[in-house]
Amino acid sequence: xxxxxxxxxxxxxxxxxxxxxxxxxxxxxxxxxxxxxxxxxxxxxxxxxxxxxxx
Length: 55
Prior knowledge:
The protein is of the alpha+beta class.
């Protein structure tokens, strides 16, 4: 997406655990607020920790 003329890449991951669907995303809010380009990464550790809560 582009906001205030600066490009921002948002990463997402969708996970299904039985009947539950989890959607994880990452975004650099400070970069967006300050009109700086951003490319926030979604770390595997965060996804793993959140997935453990789905079961």
